[in-house]
Amino acid sequence: MFYYLFEYLNNLFDFPGSGVFRYINFRAPMAIITSLLISLFIGKKIISYLQKKQVGEDIRDLGLEGQLQKKGTPTMGGLIIIASIIIPTLLFARLDNIYIILMIVSTLWLGAIGFIDDYIKVFKKNKKGLAGKFKILGQVGLGLIVGLTIYFSDTVVIKEKYVKQQNYVNINGLFKTENSNETPQLFSRESIKSTKTTIPFVKNNEFDYADLLAFLGGNYRKYAFLIFIPIVIFIIVAVSNGANLTDGLDGLAAGTSAIIGVTLGILAYVSGNSIFANYLNIMYIPNIGELSIYVSAFVGACIGFLWYNSFPAQVFMGDTGSLSLGGIIAVFAIIIRKELLIPILCGVFLVQSLSVIIQVAYFKYTKKRYGEGRRIFKMSPLHHHYQKQGYHEAKIVMRFMIVGILLAVVTVITLKLR
Predict the structure, then answer these.
(1) pLDDT top residue among 71 and 15
(2) Which residues, including other chains, have CB under 8 Å from residue 40's CB and lie 6 or more apart?
(3) What is the dihedral of CA 32, 35, 41, 43, to 10 degrees?
(4) What is the total count of domains within the chain?
(5) Are residues 171 and 240 in the same domain?
(6) Considering only CA atoms, which of 125, 25, 37, 8 is closest in space to residue 305?
(7) Are the CB atoms for 229 and 143 separated by under 8 Å?
(8) Which of 104, 205, 225, 233 has its CA 20 to 30 A from that of 145?
(9) CB neighbours of 198 closer than 8 A, spacing ≥ 6?
């Protein structure tokens, strides 16, 4: 919104300073500052409102230290996160950008699913909340929207490396021709539709999902949507539910999501800059840099929410927040063609999900074989296992976040480590 306003003022009146809104490296910091302020000021009002409405968490006694003290803590705090993402994005981002539109739709879509779940739990007093099949159906619906848009929209494109044969030399990190000081064209002028993505630890680090259908022969590429869209759906469902499982300790989901958000912001920025994309030998995606505005708001929202959600929490995000955070991360990674880095970057989410899957599978297996179910972990998800071992909640959260930082660093390193 501000982008268009100040662009108008600059073009019509040559308004002093208005041109600065053209630059992403100005609008991104403004987005994160605005997001933080919204989290702090609106967050307090939302918490007060939830307390008046007695929108408190109904805690089951699982024998965990400090658990019962959390009873009555307001939930549905994910509303703070969503407001702190959407408002700065609307103010500072270019709203005609297809990637920004997709991220706004994803945020509101999953926020609505989570809100319905929390509403049923809190106001209808139904502890089960929204039936699991409806949650999955909603996540699949978003996957279809995202997958179909990326695949069929003419505005979602990439640029291939320039193929003309020239002799280049590397001068201070810039590629120049041997007989000229001019930097050559590094990427083709024409943008193309593609289902390519980035794979880590491989020298030629681009993989085309369409190649999985090569056995069909002929024009197999025109059927690429048959493999691409199901993959998009799977990633969104998996990461969204992984974040939901991680939301079990004060500050854990918000803290790890903030770390992931910073990393995704770095990946988006270098992918949308032809010079950095060439230097790192990664895919160049035109107009993707605008997502730096969105992810700045996302990081600011997570950090701002931690003001109230850090131990001891004054508010819980509920499914309104956790489903949104996971879905946002998944869709963002898919858009910037870095979704195959998710197992590394979102390693905390992955381990939490695996701990539940392993626990349930082993319990069912042993019950069938021995007549009595047995467990590998004292409790799942994994953070509760450590609680059962006697670790304090704040220590578990801090250590998980340290692991998250290490995974984020490894993710960035994969851009050059091949």
Answers:
(1) 71
(2) 304, 307
(3) -130
(4) 2
(5) no
(6) 37
(7) yes
(8) 205
(9) 205, 206, 207, 282, 283, 337, 338, 340, 341
**What are the pLDDT digits (tens) for 95-151?**
999 999 999 999 999 999 999 999 998 888 887 889 989 999 999 999 999 999 999
pLDDT at 19: 72
Same domain, 180 and 305: no
Give the confidence band of 53 by pLDDT, cuts at 50, 70, 90: confident
User: Among residues 67, 63, 106, 62, which one has the least CA distance to residue 86?
Assistant: 106
Helices (H), 341-418: 342-345, 347-370, 382-388, 393-413
Asked whether residue 165 carries a pLDDT value surpassing 50, the answer given is no
Q: Give Cβ neighbours of residue 181 (< 8 Å, ≥ 6 apart).
A: none
Q: Is the residue at 418 inside a domain?
A: no
**Helix, strand, or coil (residue 285):** coil
Does 236 share its domain with 330?
A: yes
Q: Which domain holds residue 168?
A: 159-193
Does some domain include residue 84?
yes
Does residue 169 share a domain with residue 63? no
- Both tokens of 232, joined, read 């998009």
